[in-house]
């Protein structure tokens, strides 16, 4: 079908064939930098460029300087220190002053090549040591005056490793290899892959040109245009891929058809629904219904901030399944949460002819046997539970819909295990209250369909959040007392410091005693819940808080997800600086669930890092989970965001989905437009894209073999 193959081009040649490389250096490049082919070295982009014409006088280097370039003559070099402190220190001098150059690695080689009396052009990050400016591991070359003055000369600085430097493959040598490769290429070796109309519309340089300019720019402006184009290309190709994968899944994955809205759904909706659905709930429900009625498997991510009412959407979807003769299941990450869903849903369905069951790790053997039998013969319509649902012994009669609540605790693999529980894979709805920034969702979950509940049920008051220091503890306790005296309840949460469970427990116990001193029995009662308790103990304590037998819940983060006690109006988070943003937001979501005004108090010591301070500030400033998620992404970078770690879709070479959001937006939009208009990329205009995607596929396989 594809007549053009790019596999034969020069750029797919193994790196050992590049002039100046050879088998030994090729091995090093592969191992150290993952450079296997000519193309790979072109994709090894410079970190920055040095303007070789700008030389700073040494005396102008201050502690505030960042990267500097000086030209100085070496006056001496000495070996100092021992073992790990062993270093080579050279002094250089220009007409304005002196500075030191320091090496900890490659000492022997550098000592041999460094010539006292020679003048070098020296570049690196400036530091100060004992009042003397110095550069550690500088970039150096013999100074030739003709390079300074005149037109800007932007030399690329490439990332390299100490091992490579020792084998004469430092940044400068990589630059030389890249330069000679680029000089030998023709325009057709780096054929354009973007439609001509894009280039025109965005004013992008050609692909060939962009590669030249990103490595060896003739000006700042050309460099910026080149990097923009290549970033866009990267994002756009990824979006196009994801879009095509999704399209394919839509086309070929068979799914059970829920064709009708029947008696069960309707009678519940009209007679038992305790409240009017919000507009967002209705919209999402419609999206789900459409999805499940089409004969292809639904794979949908439902995002809704804490308290936005995802459970009702889940329940109504399960009723649709039942109306169409299918079983469904709802899986929660903790027993507490599974229990709570079971109780809530059972009571909502108490007048409906449906059988609901609960299966968790602590379901007793006899009960379990009964449930498994009833499940297999179809007597149970809705199964609610924990991971226990995933066990092989749990066999359904005809599972049609599987819902996963609070998705970030479940991996992709677990999702896949649910698929296998029916001949035709069940529809999957993944619900998460950890808002994922839109940019991330677009890249990490681009192959899933995606719904958002972006509206809270009416009557909610925003939670007031404040940051208080340890020394104000007594005031905080007084405040809790005043809320309790009004009939409300409070949570006090302690962090888990994973290194030592024992310490955590001690910490929690001390906290508990402390709270007890402020709130003595019998006027006040306190529940305590933590991960080391037996499930029954946990459950009893939880239950006492739910039924308002206790006014205070002291706990670790086990209550983080899902727990619903609308009467609770205060959330105190101890050592709040130890929590991540999304966790703080989750915890805060435990209050503000009823009609009463709620408060969240973040307690910390006075010694906290700037980043922690930034998190606390964000929490105090907004209740919007999506804003918080964006901030989280900004503070931590995409690699660390919950649930996206393994996605592999975030490893862009050039683009950064936070900083290049505008490019990502544009790329996503253009990709969508193209897929809608020309899903098989047949048009003359899109042929380049098709060829490129096809060639890329081949190449991926190739580089794995070598
Ligand atoms: P989450 O999305 O965090 O799982 P829940 O489903 O637990 O939220 O809902 C939070 C609370 O809001 C529950 O008490 C629920 O009964 C209530 N609720 C849900 N939808 C509505 C609505 N449309 N109107 C009023 N209250 C609602
Ligand atoms: Mg929930």
UniProtKB/TrEMBL annotation:
This is ATP-dependent DNA helicase RecG. It catalyses: ATP + H2O = ADP + phosphate + H(+); Couples ATP hydrolysis with the unwinding of duplex DNA by translocating in the 3'-5' direction. InterPro entries: ATP-dep_DNA_helicase_RecG, DEAD/DEAH_box_helicase_dom, Helicase_ATP-bd, Helicase_C-like, NA-bd_OB-fold, P-loop_NTPase, RecG/Mfd, RecG_dom3_C. Residues 291-453 form the Helicase ATP-binding domain. Gene3D superfamilies: Nucleic acid-binding proteins, P-loop containing nucleotide triphosphate hydrolases. CDD domains: DEXHc_RecG, RecG_wedge_OBF. Keywords: ATP-binding, DNA damage, DNA recombination, DNA repair, DNA-binding, Helicase, Hydrolase, Isomerase, Nucleotide-binding.
